[in-house]
Structure to design on (382 residues):
């Protein structure tokens, strides 16, 4: 009984942290004004085999109501029609500049190298790195610049709306934000007088150009598969201010098109975490199981197969109510499918199985593949 009360108490702490995160997270304002004079912003799009996404992304960037920007696209050795699509759009809009990427050096991760090449070619005083699978509202650039200037940030990143197409994805993808916002005290990190790492999500990276080069740009994290997480850490280590905001009203992302890419994409991220901090990853897996999955097994056992007391059952029901409330708060805020709430145990189990898969590959040294590139222990890329 004491154990169940402890679990319920910890879940209440998670709930409070989540509420504080949601209450304190800033949102770009659609009515923001353009600063005068309007600084040149370079929107930088690394693209590798993105023929399904690149046109929609670039067309949304072309529609920005901000008056002074350029769009630079780098084709990172694609094998599909990505380059042809970008060239077609660039031929009709001189704001779009297209480049072919150089061959990937052995000691670089693919996306970090593509971003680094783009930054070297950019002319803007602000650098906005966006993934090729993102879609942007017309006021995105104006409103995020205004917020970055107001908050005096070196780096503005945050939480785009994550789109899901298939039924399994609608169950799985929303779990990601639920885990992050329940565990990470962003509200405290943002208020700290001493710069601390926030949540860096590489789908949207808005850098002051001087700050970007002050820390060495993407070369600082060239060997990292999860370059976004490490860029946030490096920036804070160098005294830069990093803030994560709610980007869901202005940016959406088609992160994974099918379940195969969902599995391998999550595995790639988890593999790099296992390489960085295997014991911490194991602790997080244990916490996820005992706080977010086990109460459902206890509920079944207590109500249908055991003779637990009424008080015990009430505490377990409270645990599940807290979890579902947290899921509802997150999914409502970021406009995620509500169906995910009711399949919460399945979504969590999917993540845990993926952790075991990716962590096992790291443990035995078999490496991980992403975008047709292999990253293993024998390489210097983590």
């Amino acid at each position: 009984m004491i154990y169940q009360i402890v679990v319920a108490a910890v879940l209440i702490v998670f709930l409070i942290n989540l509420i504080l995160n949601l209450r304190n997270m800033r949102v770009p304002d659609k009515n923001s004004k353009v600063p005068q004079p309007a600084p040149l912003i370079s929107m930088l799009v690394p693209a590798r085999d993105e023929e399904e996404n690149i046109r929609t992304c670039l067309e949304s960037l072309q529609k920005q109501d901000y008056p002074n920007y350029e769009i630079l696209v780098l084709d990172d050795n694609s094998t599909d029609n990505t380059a042809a699509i970008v060239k077609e759009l660039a031929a009709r809009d001189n704001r779009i500049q297209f480049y072919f990427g150089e061959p990937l050096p052995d000691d670089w991760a693919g996306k970090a190298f593509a971003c680094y090449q783009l930054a070297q070619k950019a002319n803007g005083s602000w650098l906005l790195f966006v993934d090729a699978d993102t879609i942007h509202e017309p006021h995105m650039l104006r409103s995020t610049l205004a917020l970055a200037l107001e908050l005096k940030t070196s780096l503005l990143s945050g939480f785009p709306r994550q789109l899901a197409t298939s039924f399994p994805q609608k169950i799985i993808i929303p779990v990601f934000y639920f885990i992050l916002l329940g565990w990470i005290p962003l509200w405290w990190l943002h208020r700290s007088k001493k710069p601390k790492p926030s949540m860096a999500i590489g789908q949207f990276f808005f850098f002051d150009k001087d700050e970007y080069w002050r820390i060495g740009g993407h070369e600082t994290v060239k060997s990292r598969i999860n370059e976004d997480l490490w860029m946030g850490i490096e920036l804070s280590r160098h005294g830069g201010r990093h803030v994560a905001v709610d980007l869901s009203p202005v940016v959406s992302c088609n992160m994974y098109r099918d379940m195969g890419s969902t599995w391998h994409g999550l595995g790639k991220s988890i593999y790099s975490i296992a390489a960085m901090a295997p014991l911490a990853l194991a602790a997080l897996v244990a916490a996820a199981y005992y706080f977010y999955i086990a109460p459902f097994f206890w509920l079944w056992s207590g109500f249908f197969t055991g003779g637990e007391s009424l008080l015990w059952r009430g505490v377990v029901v409270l645990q599940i109510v807290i979890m579902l409330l947290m899921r509802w708060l997150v999914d409502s805020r970021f406009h995620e499918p509500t169906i995910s709430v009711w399949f919460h145990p399945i979504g969590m189990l999917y993540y845990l199985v993926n952790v075991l898969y990716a962590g096992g590959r790291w443990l035995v040294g078999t490496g991980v593949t992403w975008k047709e590139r292999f990253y293993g222990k024998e390489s210097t890329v983590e």
Observations:
- The chain has two domains: 2-20+261-375, 24-259.
- The first strand starts at residue 41 and ends at 47.
- The radius of gyration is 22 Å.
- The longest helix spans residues 310-333.
